[in-house]
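Look over both lines before class:
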Amino acid sequence: MKAFAIRLACAVWMVLSLGLPPTAADECAVIIEDFDTNSVPKTLTVSDAKVALKKIKGVDGRALRVRFGNATKPGITLRPSTGSWDWSEFAGMAVDVANPQPEPVEIFVRIESIQDDGKRASTRFHMPIPADGTRVFTFFFTNYGAGAYWGMRGVPVLGPVIMLAPGMSGFVLDSSKVTAIQIYLNRPGQKRALFLDNIRVFRKGSSLEALVPFPFVDRFGQYRHGDWPGKINNETELIEQAAKESAGTHAELPGRDRFGGWADGPQLDATGWFRTEKVDGKWWLVTPAGHLFFSLGIDCVHHGDSTWIDGRDNWFEWAPAADGPFKSFVSYRSGAKRMAGPIGGEGRLVSFYAINLKRKYGEQWRQAYLDTTSRRLRAWGFNTIGNWSGSDVQANCSIPFVVAGNSSRKSTIETSSGFWRKTVDVFDPVFATDTDTRMAELTAAHASNPLVLGYFIDNEETWQGIPHATLSSPSTQPARQVFVDDLKAKYATIERLNEAWDTDATDWDALRMPRTTTAACTADSAGFTYRFGRRYFETVRDALRKHAPNQLYLGCRFSRADCPEPILKACAEVADVISINAYTDRIAPDAFTKWDKPVIIGEFHFGALDRGMFHPGLRGVETQRDRADAYVRYVRSVAANPCFVGCHWFQYIDQPLTGRSYDGENYNIGFVSVADVPYAEMVESAKRVHAELYTKRAAK
């Protein structure tokens, strides 16, 4: 108990006295609650928690100790004494937090506001508080929570602030009508304690707004205010790294055929094309030479994404001059207001990765990049160039690759919505004709190439809610007409359907999906969803078969959160391979086995914040060693499932530190950094798990 009390005292003393931004002295900050009273504020309520005001010896004022219970969302809620808070003139909010425990604690802050229409809205942020440590929990009211650090999903010091796509991030806040601040833990698993103090809002120009000194990006596109293994400090180091890597060993994995298949394994029929086959109860891909093939791929092998430089003059210690040697690496973009609001959605972009390639390899950097990349991928045990990779990489690296394309977008279901776009209306005749045209164009350069593993058509489409969107659309919507015709054939009259669905539609044109579905409505909706899926997959398959008859249709790259069973069933019956983007810790040994169909992972990754990056991506871990270990676990789990035939890592290069231009992603998810330096931990682990894969997977 004594040791715990000492840690509590030290932690709070650190919060109130050491290194945290001043509050009373900060003229740009206004205190909402400093807890310097004799009793807990009456405007504060608790949920599965206990609170007390604590005065620490030698420190002025008090802090609020919160003991969080082991519940779903234990915490506190602070409300204004009357009405709501008007924070419209403020840039953000901050809370001093101390964690006396010997383990880090993830704290959540949720702000609730009331909209003009009277509806309540809220947004939340979360941040790890280090063991026996302190942090200022800071978040912003603009730019999806990034504030002054616009166009980035993760920002300096704070880390991730935007987890989903802009507009889909759940960031809904009217800062002029704030009604509550909730501070809580999310399923802590055990009782925890934290100290909170100085809940305040701050104006633009406050010391709280500038999280780090400017500029914070160096000439190589790296974070200036830190050091780590592999960081490049000057051009000499960049060139020396290239020379050292070139002089090293680059032996390819033994026992592989020229496609990366298992030359030491069974010899099957050599058809000259990639195909699928079930061998000893396990699905495999088969190389054109007739060898078993497990697709170990890596996505986005190209010259790097671009990031905004306009409107960020003080962010970078260097940017390419308009008439300098790197002027060709500057481009221009418009119409990107979601992630570039401060500059009106248009301005100049630059790819620091591409610039670093030229610095590293000289005027012939493009060919040197291709040679180096091909050598790396083969030596690391990768045998597939994944989605969204450069056409120059596909053409020059002599490694099997996938081709990405889209079906028609010319007709959509009017009332549908989705993560990326509206749902296409597969029953509109234009869908088939336009898809055929698109597939003809897509396959023209690839249909005769045996290195093509297959075609991914579309990515993370919206499959949920198809019946609802269909019946909410006008009577002229082709999908609605098909659905209604099916229902007429089954029920004959609207009265009989109303009885089965528990609806009260006056006629067929008035029919909508009910809020609560009966068993009959659920079955009918599933039946239509399946028919919708069959039409979609058959249309794409038929177009591909027509224009690339010898190559595989790899499906539509489902997102893990949006693959309803009727659609999966349709895909399994039609496509050659089911594909899914699965950002999980591992794949279950029985996942997808009910379909008895080959399955491939289109995307997965793990990221960390220990090498100067601001966001770990969709699956975060602590360190690069943890990233490498997570990669091994994941690949082994995929190979252990009898239906899976491959997995593709997203992606080859870390994303730009200051966010790629169109959606702000700035994740540490590369096998190489922005300076083209491989992550040694990732490379070593990849080589190890790739080397063992064929023999382990084939073992009975």
